[in-house]
Design a protein that fits this description.
The protein has 24 helices and 20 strands. The chain is an alpha+beta fold and about 675 residues long. Among the domains are: about 110 residues, Chitinase A, domain 3; about 100 residues, Roll (Chitinase A, domain 3), CATH 3.10.50.40; about 90 residues, no CATH class; about 100 residues, Chitinase A, domain 3. The strands form six sheets. Strands 4-3-6-5 form a four-stranded antiparallel beta sheet, with helices on both faces. Strands 8-7-10-9 form a four-stranded antiparallel beta sheet. The longest helix has 30 residues. It is flat and about 105 Å long. The N terminus is likely disordered.
């Protein structure tokens, strides 16, 4: 079983942005610390959380060995020592840390907020609805311009009257021609064709998806007016389709155009039935769609609700790839369609971002925010001074924001209670202070005071929710602490280990001088090693190399004359290399200048030149390895210093509880 290093896991987490938040292992004795470092208590929960998060899930079934547990406990101690030192140095007070941590915090808290759970519910509901398509007809009753409450009531009464006619046996489609104020009703008789979720305004969609086939709705209020909706059909979502088409246009201003177009499309359709006909040629010669006539008539992929109903129904009725439809008439003219490809609706994971962007652009976003505020107000005991809010609304709604402070001062309301939340009082003067600090104007229609008051109260409630998360949501508080400590660890290591090891040339040289025995060359040789990938080309290479001595010019000539003309036949390595580290040289006879050997059933050709015995490396020859080792040395020195500065005392009883918890 392999457990990832806690520190390595944190570095990966910070650098690559893994925002997973698995369920935290349940440990006992929350008030009994696992250890103290320099007098500071460290909880068992933090250790179990980090180690449980970094382990290998499959291997965890076999349990955690005592040796692995002790190794990870040591790494955890080193990690916490470095965090303590970073705090002692004030790294958590720097502007850079605060900015980075605030950015992480915004991302980390999102999955835990009320808004996220509500938004997730809307995403899932929309995707669930997308599994079905609905065909509906409607009659629209619009409001007159600048309508008042009386106007709205008149429109509602008309909608109810027409619904009664439908219930008495009236035909909705016929009534749509007579009453509907939808401009398309005259041509489509109110038939909207098939649609799915997120293709209609939300109230219309909600109503349609609650109706059974043949059922008629009560008047449904949307931003367009009142609708009477009848569901004509419900089908499983056919997914996506790609078709190519031929178009013969109809000129609406020419009474003869329709008849000519119909005869022309009939002739084209008859021509297509001939077995020798090539679809692309017919499209190129006869289609009057300039956008597609030169590419075989291919149209982009589309789903239900993206095309005009007649075209869409014809496209989705095709079942076999290459199948051609009879002529179909739309408002553009006559079409012949050919099915190119079909595929089912994408998975939720594939569509999640698209669904979210659509939800955030329509009225659902406002609905979600209203629900969030309602839940927050109930959770945190929000109590509003209604009479004062009404007074301020009347006095300030027609005033610009900049005039609020002076107006409130003139009214003498600064010390008055505006609202309470979670037992804390918020005064009018607190609202004024918020106005002076927030320079971004909300893009919302309505009274000026109402907008800013809602924004202020919403910000207070959001702050309370965030503080509540940090205090009462253990998983979130652990995740937040993990990122905070991880950033501090990174900052300390960067300052005192990585950058120091990289830039301290004197320290590098001193470390090299004290550890020269660790930087030694093995036996080396100047050699050309040719791995023969194409056995039929081996003799040509062998003939070229036999009798020649190693030199750079030999390597160049071999590349020019053989490798460049047969790049897939050979693989080259040339230059000074350690004999033991090369799979072919390590098995060669060093006394022979040219030889052929076989390694793992693959032929190699070798030309061996000057041989150099083992010996010490120069500093410049191994500087990269020295820097790496010097950084590790600095890290070990740092840990030793910190253990002296912050004495470590482990509670063995709680340590045993942690071991048991991780092996459950």
């Amino acid at each position: 079983m392999i457990y990832r290093s806690i520190s390595a896991f944190l570095f990966t987490l910070i650098l690559f942005g893994s925002f997973a938040s698995p369920t935290m292992a349940q440990a006992q004795s929350p008030d009994n610390p696992l250890m103290t470092l320099g007098g500071q208590d460290i909880s068992i929960d933090e250790f179990v959380y980090l180690l449980g998060k970094g382990n290998n899930t499959e291997s965890n079934a076999a349990g955690l060995s005592r040796e692995e547990f002790d190794e990870n406990l040591d790494m955890f101690i080193n990690f916490k020592l470095k965090v303590l030192e970073a705090e002692a140095l004030g790294l958590d007070e720097t502007d850079e840390f605060k900015s980075e941590f605030a950015s992480f915090k915004e991302t980390l808290k999102a999955p835990f907020l009320i808004k996220n759970s509500l938004e997730e519910g809307e995403l899932r509901k929309a995707y669930s609805r997308m599994q079905e398509v609905i065909r509906a007809s409607h009659i629209l009753f619009r409001f007159p311009p600048n309508a008042n409450a009386d106007d709205s009531l008149i429109v509602l009464k008309m909608a109810l009257k027409v619904k009664q006619e439908i219930q008495n046996g009236g035909d909705l489609n016929a009534l749509a021609i007579e009453y509907s104020e939808d401009p398309s009703a005259k041509s489509n008789k109110g038939d909207l064709g098939y649609f799915t979720a997120l293709q209609m305004v939300q109230p219309f969609e909600d109503a349609a998806y609650t109706l059974q086939t043949g059922q008629v709705s009560d008047p449904v209020l949307t931003s367009f007016g009142y609708h009477i909706i009848k569901v004509q059909d419900r089908l499983p979502n056919p997914g996506q389709v790609q078709v190519s088409h031929i178009l013969v246009r109809v000129d609406e201003n020419d009474p003869k155009s329709d008849d000519l177009a119909r005869r022309k499309i009939s002739d084209i359709y008859a021509e297509i039935q001939k077995p020798t006909t090539i679809w692309e040629d017919i499209v190129k010669n006869y289609s009057e769609d300039p956008a597609t006539s030169q590419n075989g008539g291919i149209l982009p992929w589309f789903t239900v609700g993206n095309m005009i109903p007649e075209f869409e129904m014809a496209a989705f009725s095709l079942t076999e790839i290459g199948e051609v439809s009879p002529p179909v008439k739309t408002r553009y003219g006559y079409h012949i369609l050919r099915l190119e490809e079909k595929k089912p609706i994408d998975s939720f994971e594939e569509m999640e971002d698209l669904i979210r962007s659509r939800i955030l652009r329509d009225s659902r976003s406002t609905m979600i925010q209203s629900q969030v505020l309602a839940i927050q107000k109930a959770r945190y005991g929000f109590q509003e001074n209604e009479s004062l809010v009404d007074q301020l609304s009347q006095q300030l709604n027609n005033q610009p924001k900049s005039s609020f402070p002076a107006k409130i001062q003139a009214l003498g309301l600064g010390k008055d209670l505006l609202f309470t939340a979670k037992g804390q009082q918020y005064l009018v003067e607190d609202f004024v202070k918020y106005l002076t600090e927030d320079e971004v104007s909300p893009k919302t229609r309505g009274g000026t005071f109402d907008i800013w008051y809602d924004r202020y109260s919403g910000s207070i409630l959001s702050d309370l929710e965030e503080k509540d998360l940090e205090t009462n949501n253990k998983e979130y508080s652990m995740l937040l602490k993990e990122y905070r400590d991880g950033i501090l660890l990174f900052s300390l290591m960067n300052d005192q280990v990585w950058q120091k090891g990289l830039l301290d040339s004197i320290g590098q040289r001193n470390y090299f001088d004290q550890n020269k025995a660790s930087y030694q060359w093995k036996n080396r040789a100047h050699a050309l090693v040719v791995k023969v990938l194409d056995p039929s080309k081996k003799d040509a290479a062998k003939t070229f190399l036999q009798g020649k001595s190693y030199s750079e010019s030999l390597v160049d000539d071999f590349e020019d004359q053989l490798v460049n003309t047969n790049p897939m036949a050979y693989q080259l390595r040339a230059g000074l290399m350690e004999i033991e580290e090369n799979e072919a040289l390590s098995q060669a006879d060093p006394t022979l200048e040219f030889q052929e050997i076989t390694v793992a059933e693959t032929p190699y050709l070798l030309v061996i030149g000057q041989k150099i015995p083992s010996g010490p490396k120069k500093f410049d020859e191994t500087r990269g390895a020295v820097i790496r080792d010097y950084q590790e040395y600095l890290d070990s020195q740092l840990i030793e210093e910190l253990k002296k500065k912050y004495p470590v005392k482990v509670n063995n009883q709680v340590k045993e509880e942690a071991f048991i918890s991780l092996n459950q």
